[in-house]
Design brief:
This protein has about 325 residues and is α+β, with helices and mostly antiparallel strands. The protein has helices at about 5-10, 20-30, 35-45, 65-85, 90-105, 110-115, 120-130, 155, 165-180, 185-190, 195-200, 260-265, 305-320, and strands at about 15, 50, 60, 110, 135, 150, 210, 215-220, 235-240, 275, 280-290, 290-295. α4 crosses α9 and α9 (about 165-180) packs across α11.
C-alpha cells in the first residue's frame, strides 16, 4: 500500500528544505514511485507545510506535525536567538505586532515584509521566530525554488491547539521513529531544545532501553523494527541538506569520518550530494547535461557500479 506523503514525513521526522529541490530528491530517495508533482500538490493543498523549525532551519513536515513541532521548540528557540544575536526582545515583539495585521490579509513576500518592518537585521530576522510563519507556494517548490512567500501559520495551518509538553513528546516520537535508538542528547540536539526538556519528557513515554558500546543509554519506541546487522542496504542517492548525514551528529556511522571533510566544510556547510553503499557514504553525485554523474571516493564493491548507474538513471529521469 502506498504511504500518504504526510504520513511518510511523520515517519522520518520531517525533511530539511533549505534548498527546495533537496526535499523533492530526499523524498524520491525514500519513497517508491514518488513524483515531483505529488509534493507540489501537497503543498498547495496544505497537507504538508514548510516552516523554520528544528535548529532554526527550514523543514518540510505534515500539517498535523507543524503545531506540535513549533510549540515544542518555540520557547527555547526564542531564548537562543535573543541570547545568540544580542537582540532586543521588545523590539522584535513590537515588529511582530506591526507586521501581523498585514499578514492577516494574506501571504506576503520577503521584500514586502522588509519594506513594512524597516528594522535592523537582528530584529527583522527574529520576527520569524516570534511570529509563527510558514513558507507557502508557489515559492519553495521545484518550479520556484526561493522560499520567500510567507503566511501566518494560524491562517494557513489552522489554530494552535497543543501544549509545549505535548509538542516535545511528539518531537521525541518522530525522532525515534526516523532515527532511533538514540541518546537523549541527540534528540535534544536535533530538536534544538535543552537536554532536561527531553529527559523530562522521556519519563512520560513508554520506551525500550538499550546500551551503546560505551555503556550509554539508548532509547527507542516499542515495537519498532530493528534490522539485523547483516540486513542489506540498497544504494541511495541523497541531496544536500539530507538530515541522515547529521543524525545527530556523528553516532550513526552513515558518514565515515575519513570522508567528512569531503562532504562538509566551510565552503559546503550544507553538505554535497552524496550516495550510500551498504548504508554508508561512498561518494558524490551531480546532475549536469541531463545526466547524474557518479564520483566514488574509492573502489566500489563488485556489482555496485551497475546498481548505482541504474539508480542514477532514475534520478536523471526524475529531474527531467
Amino acid at each position: 500500500m502506498k504511504t500518504p506523503l504526510p504520513r511518510a514525513l511523520e515517519r522520518i521526522a520531517g525533511i530539511q528544505a533549505q534548498y527546495a529541490p533537496s526535499m523533492y530528491i530526499g523524498l524520491w530517495s525514500r519513497l517508491q514511485n514518488f513524483e515531483r508533482d505529488q509534493l507540489t500538490r501537497a503543498l498547495q493543498r496544505k497537507s504538508v507545510v514548510q516552516g523554520t523549525l528544528m535548529r532554526t532551519t527550514i523543514h518540510l513536515v505534515s500539517k498535523d506535525d507543524y503545531w506540535p513541532f513549533i510549540v515544542g521548540i518555540r520557547r527555547r528557540r526564542r531564548e537562543q536567538w535573543v541570547r545568540g544575536h544580542k537582540a532586543d526582545r521588545g523590539k522584535i515583539e513590537a515588529a511582530c505586532r506591526k507586521l501581523k495585521p498585514h499578514l492577516a490579509k494574506g501571504p506576503l513576500s520577503q521584500a514586502e515584509l522588509d519594506e513594512i518592518l524597516s528594522a535592523d537585521a537582528a530584529t527583522r530576522n527574529g520576527v520569524g521566530l516570534f511570529l509563527d510563519l510558514v513558507r507557502v507556494p508557489p515559492s519553495g517548490t521545484w518550479e520556484r525554488r526561493r522560499a520567500d512567500i510567507y503566511a501566518l501559520a494560524e491562517k494557513w495551518v489552522g489554530p494552535e491547539k497543543v501544549t509545549e509538553e505535548d509538542g516535545i513528546e511528539v518531537l521525541i516520537r518522530r525522532y525515534l521513529s526516523g532515527f532511533g535508538p538514540a541518546l537523549a542528547e541527540e534528540i535534544a540536539n536535533w530538536a534544538g531544545v535543552s537536554n532536561p526538556d527531553i529527559t523530562g519528557a522521556l519519563d512520560r513515554i513508554e520506551l525500550r532501553r538499550f546500551q551503546d558500546e560505551q555503556g550509554k543509554e539508548l532509547v527507542d519506541l516499542p515495537r519498532l523494527p530493528l534490522p539485523g546487522a547483516e540486513t542489506p542496504a540498497p544504494v541511495r542517492l541523497l541531496p544536500v541538506w539530507d538530515s541522515t548525514l547529521l543524525v545527530h551528529a556523528r553516532r550513526t556511522q552513515i558518514l565515515p569520518e575519513r570522508y567528512r571533510a569531503r562532504v562538509f566544510g566551510t565552503k559546503t556547510p550544507h553538505s554535497v550530494n552524496t550516495f550510500l553503499v551498504d548504508g554508508q557514504v561512498a561518494g558524490t553525485w551531480r546532475f549536469e547535461k541531463g545526466r547524474v554523474r557518479i564520483k566514488p571516493f574509492g573502489r566500489l564493491p563488485k556489482g555496485v557500479r551497475a546498481e548505482l548507474d541504474e539508480e542514477a538513471g532514475r534520478l536523471a529521469a526524475f529531474h527531467a
